[in-house]
Amino acid sequence: MAHDFKNGDLVEWILDYGGYEATGDVLVGIHPNRAMGIVMRVSKKDERYMAVYCFGDSKWHVVDTFYDEVNKLTGADNG
User: Fold this and answer.
1) DSSP notation for the chain
2) What are 26-55's pLDDT values in tens digits?
3) What is the value of pTM for the model shown?
4) Which structural domain range is residue 28 located in?
């Protein structure tokens, strides 16, 4: 599954959750804490992973586009 993220894109993703609640025997995250940053490098082996510089904590994060609910904020699609 190819993604259209590229170096320099501004993205937002779910960094973690403020809490969890049980739904049956499954824990579900509530109150998502979102982070915003710039894509520094997209993996050449698996485009689902990318290194992102986070503006909030000034650190690099490995973001998984499958699990981290990533939204692209810049680019041809969003102006």
Assistant:
1) ------TT-EEEEEEEEEEEEEETTEEEEEEEEEEEEEEEEE-SS-TTEEEEEETTTS-EEEEETTTS--EE-SSTTT-
2) 999 999 999 999 999 999 999 999 999 999
3) 0.80
4) 10-72
